Amino acid sequence: MHLDLGLKSHFELLRHQFMNTLSDIVHGAGIPFGFGGIGRVKDDRLPIPSDLIYAQYLRLRADRALVSRVFTSQTIRVLI
Question: What pTM was estimated for this model as a whole?
Answer without folding.
Answer: 0.69
